[in-house]
Design goal:
The structure holds two protein chains of two kinds. Chain A is of the alpha/beta class. Chain A is built from eleven helices and 13 strands. In chain A, helix 6 links the parallel strand 6 and strand 7. Chain A is elongated. The two termini of chain A are 32 Å apart. Chain B is mainly α. Chain B has one domain. Chain B has eleven helices and two strands, in the order H-H-H-H-H-H-H-H-E-E-H-H-H. Chain B has a two-stranded antiparallel ribbon with strand order 1-2. The chains are: A alpha/beta, B mainly alpha. The complex binds adenosine-5'-triphosphate and magnesium ion.
């Protein structure tokens, strides 16, 4: 659906986005994460034609037009990270205005706007002035507006920043809803737990480079998670440590007062056998568990590095 | 490009109609026009009553019209640049500009929309003053069509002033600097069109011949205003009279001689001014297009940080 090819953005000598290539298949809910200043907003703005790319190309579906062309703009719905609304304009008129900016007919707009406001839970606010809406409502209104011309691709830049926990959950439900309606969605966010719950695939950016991208489960599995085990020990710590050190295929990662963390490069059966051995050697275990793949730790691990050379 | 289908015009009119500022502005504007008219009547009355008055009330009443009309045009050309100068930079300050640029509106239709909505808004003011203006016609002597021409002049000059404003708006990040810049630019443009004439007068002070130095004045809105009203009211202006030029063939270049013939100047000048306005709007549209090489501007958000 969205093909980004070697996209680069330079501000003078500073490279904000470097040789970014990415493919988001149709129907995906793609999470875009990265620390502040990683270049997420820059990338998204280049895709919507709000920023000129230094080099590289963006292609959407089988649209022939270049970035910024009318065909391309019709395919994209964009929700910026920061946006404003007009004074003295009602919600209904706000939708009307943007609809006609896409060249839609008045009757068509009214019908679609009604449906969309229903979808984002704002149908009772139709006659309210947009500047009196709360932050969360504005955010939802902006999503409804971005959907008005029925775009195939939805680009959301931190849609839940500044929302309260309830509004965040509602936003998440809304996005899940849209995903199930078959929209391709790219969402940039800092709230990793939220992304890991709803996204089907994910890309991690740091210092303008895409570090990794792909299906959510695969990426989480790539992380040492899935291979890391915590063993909690009540007594026989020394024996355990010695045994683990000697055991082939197991690496001792850290030893705490009554817990050790190991990484296993072998199969899960080997680990079971190892535990059996430990017990036979009079090591008393209190607990034993496999570390779940965790987006947070993946994020910390991948973005910990300094400036790229 | 059609006016009613331009969403910006529709939105701007909707929003202004609701704002108290517009209502108060309208009230103040009409009040000033009416007051000026009453003051004019009063001074005419005074001169009739006085010992020295020549008693020609009709002529005085007729003269009231151009004075009021020209001062209105001047006020309008002050208001329009303020409106358009704050339009694009205002969208940027309000952070609505990005969303607008991701829609199917082309930069040029955005610029057209902004200028036409400003022109339409001042036309409300001017239209409201027409009944008062029409009072100068009750004694006869002036054709009703003059009122129509008055509105035409307002349109031409407010389109021009508006395009200067929008150009500055596309160049500046802040509305306030855009407003200031557009006044400076309006003034400089006026000066520039006079400069060839001045330079020639100083350099060749002993020569009568002016060459084609008057031609840049075709782009001068003030000269247009003077020529327009003089021609409409009396058929004679500084540059030309009915059926002839006010210059001797030997004193000016060939084109100047032809163009000052009768009403030719007025039409040409209107064309030139509108052309220049169009050029300004094209430049503005080009400047606000984010995909231009020259559009490497820093988003407002980062300035605020
Ligand atoms: N107009 C500009 N001029 C110079 N540098 C810029 C400009 N815009 C962005 N940058 C730089 O580009 C880098 C990427 O910025 P970007 O806004 O894309 O980050 P981000 O990933 O969206 O961060 P955040 O999570 O804070 O939103 C930053 O280092 C920023 O300083
Ligand atoms: Mg950002």
């Amino acid at each position: 659906m969205l093909y980004i090819n070697n996209l680069t953005k330079k501000y003078g000598s500073f490279t904000a986005v470097r040789q970014l290539s990415l493919h988001i298949p149709e129907g995906d809910l793609f999470g875009f994460v990265g620390p502040n200043g990683a270049g997420k907003t820059t990338t998204i703005r280049m895709v919507c034609g709000l920023l000129r790319a230094t080099s590289g190309s963006v292609k959407i579906g089988n649209v022939r037009g270049a970035v910024g062309s009318r065909e391309m703009k019709r395919m994209i719905g964009y929700v910026p990270d920061f946006f404003g609304v007009y004074d003295n304009l009602k919600v209904r008129e706000y939708m009307d205005m943007y609809g006609s900016m896409y060249g839609m007919y008045a009757r068509e707009i009214t019908k679609l706007a009604d449906d969309l406001l229903e979808l984002v839970n704002l149908s009772d606010k139709k006659e309210v002035y947009v500047d009196t809406l709360s932050r969360g409502m504005k955010q939802r209104l902006c999503v409804a507006r971005a959907l008005l011309h029925n775009p195939k691709l939805l680009l959301l830049d931190e849609p839940s920043s500044g929302l309260d926990p309830r509004a965040r959950v509602e936003m998440k439900e809304l996005l899940k809803n849209l995903h199930s309606m078959g929209k391709t969605i790219l969402i940039s966010s800092h709230i990793l737990s939220e992304l890991s719950e709803m996204c089907t695939s994910i890309g991690i950016m740091n210092h303008g480079q895409l570090i990794t991208a792909g299906c959510m489960e695969e990426i989480l599995y790539q992380l040492s998670g899935g291979k890391r085990f915590h063993i909690q020990i009540s007594s026989g710590m020394e024996t355990a440590v010695r045994m683990l050190q000697e055991h082939a295929g197991v690496e001792l990662e850290s030893v705490m007062e009554n817990e050790v963390i190991i990484t296993n490069s072998g199969t899960e059966e080997e680990i079971s056998a190892l535990i059996g051995e430990l017990i036979q050697n009079k090591v008393i275990l209190r607990g034993f568990y496999k570390e779940e793949g965790n987006l947070e730790s993946l994020f910390m691990q991948l973005t910990g590095g300094g400036e790229p050379s | 490009m059609r006016l009613q289908s331009n969403p910006i015009v529709k939105k701007d009119l909707q929003v202004t109609a609701r704002s108290m500022r517009f209502s108060w502005g309208l009230f103040a504007y009409e009040a000033v026009v009416a007051l000026a008219f009453l003051l004019g009547l009063h001074s005419i009355q005074a001169s009739v009553d006085s010992y020295y008055g020549d008693g020609n009330v009709y002529q005085d009443l007729m003269n009231l019209f151009p004075v009021l009309a020209i001062s209105q045009v001047c006020i309008v050309t002050l208001i329009v640049p303020v409106m358009t100068a704050s339009s694009i930079s205002g969208e940027k300050e309000r952070q609505t500009f990005d969303i607008m640029m991701t829609t199917c509106m082309s930069p040029l239709s955005i610029v057209f929309g902004k200028v036409s909505s400003a022109v339409l808004r001042v036309l409300f003011y001017v239209m409201g003053s027409l009944p008062v203006m029409a009072l100068s016609f009750v004694v006869g002597g002036l054709s009703w069509s003059v009122l129509f021409y008055f509105v035409l002049a307002v349109i031409v000059l407010s389109v021009f002033a508006g395009s200067v404003g929008i150009l500055c708006s596309s160049l500046c990040k802040r509305s306030i600097s855009a407003v200031i810049l557009s006044f400076v630019m309006y003034f400089v443009l006026n000066l520039l069109t006079f400069s060839p004439l001045l330079v020639r007068r100083i350099w060749y002070w002993n020569e009568e011949n002016m060459g084609e130095c008057l031609l840049p004045l075709l782009f001068n809105p003030n000269v247009f205003l003077e020529e327009f009203f003089m021609q409409v009211m009396t058929g004679e202006s500084i540059l030309g009279s009915t059926g002839e030029s006010n210059f001797i063939r030997e004193d000016v270049g060939y084109f100047t001689y032809c163009f000052t013939y009768g009403k030719v100047w007025v039409f040409l000048s209107a064309g030139c001014i509108l052309l220049l306005a169009f050029l300004f709007m094209l430049i503005a549209a080009w400047k606000i297009d984010p995909l231009n090489a020259s559009a490497e501007r820093i988003p407002i958000k980062r300035i605020q940080k």
